[in-house]
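Appendix B, example 12.
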Amino acid sequence: MSFLVHSLRNVRIVAKEVPQIRYFSQLRPQTTSKLARPSFQASPIFQRLSRSFLTDASPVISRPTGQDAWIRYGTTALAVGGSVVAIQMFLNRETRDELSAAERSLLNESFQYTGAGLALTAIGARSLFKSGFAFRLMATNPWVVLGVSLVGSIGTMMGVLYTPPENTVQKHLFWLGFNACQAATLSPLFFVSPAILSRAALYTCGVVGSLSYVGATARNDKYLYMGGPLLAGVTVVALSSLAPMALPLGMRGLQFAEAISLYGGLAVFGGFVLFDTQKILHHARLAAQGSMVADPLRESVSLELDMINIFIRLVQILGMRNNSKK
């Protein structure tokens, strides 16, 4: 109220002197001083609560300089490179000979289908998010969403896995349906900040690239024994993800289940990358011997699921770290 009264008083003072002014340069010093510095004094409460461009508040967001950005990029590149070297030295002390032509061909085709599937999934998820599908999905009963997504994903995945490679059209249709189901399930991720999504995607590429390189250069069948333990681990991770929806857990129980789902799942699906890479090479050797038919589309589904699960957990971890800084 006092702010309004003092403002009206200043307006009256200026209005009295306006008839005597013909040019802006003829403004008297006392009038300009009144215009520049109002005669009222804001209350301390108003000064504390007001935040605008006219206050002396520090900026909320500071944009890093070009030098700081390059330092961050260099640090990230060194961290990724160091991680690759450390993983190679720790997990792959005994390397194998050079890959055969059949192994190299099946491995390259599998990763090409994996990249194409991830690109289709990302484009489809973005399109569904823009169309408002993600809002309707978030408002639906979670059990209904879980059931429909499981039925759609597992059904189309089984179609990809068990359709013979000779039936190219049907197999690719099942593959497109599988990627469409993944896109519908992942569309709510675009509610997250794009900076977090891009960082999680970069870290996922680094993790999967380094682990697949270790699996491809390790001696034959070194990590194929991990199938049973990894299956048990993914069962525990899945149960820990579903436990908060079905069991009345306390705060500590929820934190423990979340930690198992996030960090345990990250370790389990990282192990699956090693296992699936060596499984592709093993299938390539069997195909070269005539024991089976090479099927890169089938091999790509496992790698795609590994990358999606690693990406989701990295998004959650980065989001939690970002919230803790606020």
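The first helix runs from residue 2 to 17. Residues 102-319 form one domain.
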